[in-house]
Specification:
There is one protein chain. With 181 residues, this protein is of the alpha/beta class. The protein has helices at 3-18, 32-38, 56-63, 67-73, 78-92, 143-178; strands spanning 22-26, 47-52, 96-102, 116-123, 131-138. It has a single domain, classed as Maf protein, CATH 3.90.950. The chain has 6 helices and 5 strands; from the N terminus they run αβαβαααβββα. The chain has a 5-stranded mixed β-sheet, sandwiched between helices. Helix 2 (32-38) links the parallel strand 1 and strand 2 (47-52). Helix 1 packs parallel to helix 6.
C-alpha cells in the first residue's frame, strides 16, 4: 500500500467515525486525490465526489474562486487553494473540502516555479463560519513525484485537522464531566 493510500484510508475512517463527508477540488493532481480515496473499500460512506478544475476559468465558474483574485495572483496561490476547498465543500454539500493547486511541471506557471504547490482544507467550525487551513509546499522531483506528494500532503493536512478536532472535543468533554476548565 502506498503512503497516500494509507493516509486515504485513515482519513475515511476518521470521517466515518464522525458521520462526516468529504469533497475534493483538484487542479495539478488531476483526479489523483479522488482516485486514492475511492480506492479504499467503503469510501462511498463519506466521499461525496470531486471537481477537477484544471483550467483556471473553471476554478471560478465551478468552485466559486474569486475572479479578481485569479486575475491578480493566478491559480497557484494559497488563497485560491482555500477558496477551492470551500467552494467544492459548498458545491457538493460536504462537511469537509480539500483542494490542490500548483505547478507539477515541466514549465513554470503564473510566475511560480515547478514544485510550488498549495493544499488546503475547509471544514466546519464550532462558530458560525467554516474553518480552513493551507499548506505551502516546495516539492522536488519529476512531474509524477510532485503530483504524488501533493496527494499525500493534502490528505495528511486533513488527517491532522481531524485528529486535532478529536483531541479538542475529548478535552472539552473531559472538562465538562469534571466541572473544571
Amino acid at each position: 500500500m502506498t503512503a497516500a493510500a494509507t493516509v486515504a484510508a485513515r482519513v475515511l475512517e476518521q470521517l466515518a467515525l464522525r458521520g462526516a463527508t468529504l469533497a475534493v477540488a483538484e487542479s495539478l493532481t488531476g483526479g489523483l486525490v479522488a482516485a486514492e480515496l475511492t480506492g479504499v473499500p467503503g469510501a462511498s460512506k463519506t466521499f461525496r465526489g470531486s471537481v477537477t478544475a484544471y483550467a483556471t476559468p473553471l476554478k471560478e465558474r465551478l468552485l466559486g474562486v474569486d475572479g479578481a483574485l485569479l486575475a491578480a495572483r493566478g491559480a497557484v496561490d494559497a488563497e485560491v487553494a482555500l477558496q477551492m476547498a470551500a467552494g467544492v465543500r459548498a458545491a457538493l454539500g460536504a462537511d469537509w473540502g480539500i483542494a490542490t493547486t500548483g505547478v507539477a511541471g515541466p514549465e513554470p506557471q503564473d510566475g511560480q516555479p515547478v514544485g510550488t504547490v498549495y493544499v488546503a482544507v475547509s471544514g466546519p467550525s464550532a462558530d458560525a463560519g467554516p474553518t480552513g487551513k493551507v499548506a505551502a509546499l516546495r516539492l522536488s522531483g519529476d512531474r509524477a513525484e510532485i503530483r504524488r506528494e501533493s496527494v499525500r500532503s493534502v490528505l495528511e493536512l486533513l488527517s491532522g485537522l481531524l485528529a486535532d478536532e478529536r483531541t479538542e472535543n475529548a478535552r472539552a468533554q473531559d472538562t465538562e464531566q469534571n466541572g473544571g476548565d
